[in-house]
Fold:
Amino acid sequence: MAGRQQSVAPRKRPQQQRSRAMVERIVAAGREVLLRDGYDAFSTNRVADRAGISPGSLYQYFPNKAAIVAAVIDRYSDEVADRVAGALTDRLGEFGPAMIRDTADALVEALAANVDLLRVVMEDLPATSNRERRTALEQRVRELVMAYLAARPGTTRSTDHATTAWVLVMAIENLAVRYVLDEPAISRERFLDEVVALCAGYLAVA
Structure:
């Protein structure tokens, strides 16, 4: 995600197919270890063992555990962003309650697809290292919402599309995350109805 730190970038650029396959193998193993053991017990040795390689081989591609965790979270964030972006793209010709509902539904679906990893991201990872990745995910979705608002004058009371997009994305994201993690006694349909009512009232698009 945006603002990657140099210290967590892979050491070797995976130019060849074999190298790319090794990076994928390490990242997949890292994801499994992160889910199995949690962040505090996560180590390069455990990842190497799970990947079936030596620690020395792992260090050719990733300098430390932070780099592996960063790659795992980057992939996860991309998966979530792709689903949400797809929902927005499907509603390219409109901006209203149906678009809000589909976007919120896509986000809940994406987050619920791997609740354990979501919990690690939101509750276990150090806040400072995770903030950059969350910001990049949010920025990607905000840019799409801003483009929609700019293309549809009169959709909202405000012409400050950047602020409107930020409020919408923050509201939907945080509600969806808490809904998935807290599992309140609220049906998904009812939850989506409430999200639409909240956002539609803010936009005045009902």
Notes: Confidence is low (pLDDT under 50) at residues 1-6. The radius of gyration is 19 Å.
